[in-house]
C-alpha cells in the first residue's frame, strides 16, 4: 500500500492525461474484442452454418441468441449477394475493427509519453536543485558517486522500471476485465473454471517477485559505489599513477563490480523468471480449457462449436496482458527501490533561515563574530571566536594549517552553521538573511580556482544577469587576463576543459578574479588566493587582486604572511581560538605566535 501511494503521488499532477490514456485504451480494447468475436459468425459462414431461409430469432441476453441474430442478418446478405460478398464484408469489418484498435492504442501512447518524460524531467530537476541547496555537512558525509548515481541512474531506473511498466498497467487490466466479461457472456461455467485456475498461477508468480525490491536496492547501492570509485579514479589519476596504485584501485573497483554483478544476476533471474513461468501457466490453463470446453461442446446442451473456438481466441488474447501485468509488477519492485533512494535525498533538510527571510542588498557597517564555536561532528574546530570586520577595512586571518581559518569563511558564507554563538552583518544574524541575498554580498577568490568545462566567457559570467559583453571584457582586462585570453584562437569562446585543465594555475586564478570583479560585491574574501602559485605568477595575480580589492571590505585568509603586511588588522588563530590580534607591526613587537610564524617563513 505504501508503494501504491508513492506511485499515485507521482501521477497526481497528470490525472487528466492519464484519464485520456485510459479512455483511448478502453476504445482500443472494445474494437479488439469486436474483431475477435466476429470469428464465431465467420466460422458459421465458411462451414455452411448460415441458412439462407432463416427466420428472425427472438433476441435474448445470451451468446447463443446473439450469434443466431448475426446469422440471420448474414443469411439475408448471402441470399441477396452470395457467400463470397458476405465473407468480404465480414473481413472488411474485422479489418476496420483491428485498424481502430491499433489507432487508439497509438493515441494512448502519444498522450502517455509526455506524462512519462515530464515526471522524469521533474525528478532530475528536483534532485539536482536539492543537491545545490544541501548543506556542506551532508555533502561531506556522503559519497559523490552515490549522489551522482541518484540523479542519473536511479531516475532512469524509475523511467525503465516504473513508468514504462505503468503503461501496461493502464491498459491491460482494463483489457483483462473486458475480455473476462465477454468470456462470462459466452460461457459462465467455463469462465468460472478459468477463474479458479488464474489465481493459482498469480500466487506462484507473486512468490517469485517478493524479494525483488530489497535485492534491487542492494544492486543500486553497489552501482552508486562504482560510480564514486570511477569519479575518484578520473579526478585522482595523477596521484594514482604517481604512487603506482593502478593495481590497487583496479582490484578495488573489480571487487565492487563483482558484488554488483552477482546481485544484479539474482535480481534479473527473479525478474525474468516471471515471464516464462507466466507463459507456462497460461499454456496449462489453455490445455485445461480445451479439455473442459470440448466436453461441453460434445454434450447435448453444451456450447456451439463456433462459440467455443471464439472463446479460445478471446482467452488467448488475455494471456499476453496477464503476462505483461506480471512482468510490470516485477519491474515495479525495482522502480520503487529507486524511488525510495531519491525520496531520501529529496527529504533531506536544506539550509534555512531561523526567522523571517530578510532581503539584504547592501553592507553598511560591520561583520561581527560573537563567541562563535563550531565542531565537525564531535571534533571542535573553533572555540569562542570573536572577530570584528568593519566596512572598508582589510582584515586578515592567519594561523597554522588546521587552525580554523577556512572554517571561518565557510561559516560566514553559511556553508555550515555555527554550533554556538552568532555571526551578524550590520546587526542582523546571518541565519535570518535570505541565503541568496546573503551570498550576493560576497565575492570569493580561493586557493583552488573552480572552473567549469565551458568557455572562458561563461566562466567569467557565471550567475550574473543583466551584464553586457563589454562588462565581461573589462573585468578580464582589469584582472590582467585579457592578454592570454586573446592568444587563444577562439579568445573568450575558448573552452577551458575539465576543471580548467587547458589553463595554467595563474590563468585559472585570473579568470576567477575576473569573475569576482564582474560580480562587484561589497565584501571580498581572499582565501589563500596566491599560495599555490610561483613567485612570478603570484606577483601578476596579486596586481589583479589589488584592483579587485580597491574600495572593498576584504577578508584575507593568509598562509603567506607577506600578503597581509598592509592589512588593517590581523587575527591570529591557534587551536581554533583567536590568540592575537593587531597590525603587522604591533604583532611583531609582541613577539608571540605571529612573530614565530614570520620567523619560520624567514620574513622581514
Would you kindly provide a written description of the structure presented here, covering whatever features stand out?
Helices cover 64% and strands 11% of the residues. It has helices at 2-11, 15-37, 39-46, 63-81, 83-133, 136-139, 144-186, 188-209, 212-235, 237-242, 246-298, 305-346, 405-412, 435-439, 456-461, 469-478, 482-487, 505-519, 535-549, 584-590, 593-600, and strands spanning 366-376, 379-390, 394-399, 420-425, 428-429, 442-446, 523-527, 553-558, 569-574, 577-582. The strands form two sheets. A six-stranded mixed beta sheet has the order 6-7-8-3-9-10, with helices on both faces. Strands 2-1-4-5 form a four-stranded antiparallel beta sheet, covered by helices on one side. α7 (144-186) packs antiparallel against α9. The radius of gyration is 37 Å and the shape is elongated. The relative contact order is 0.08.
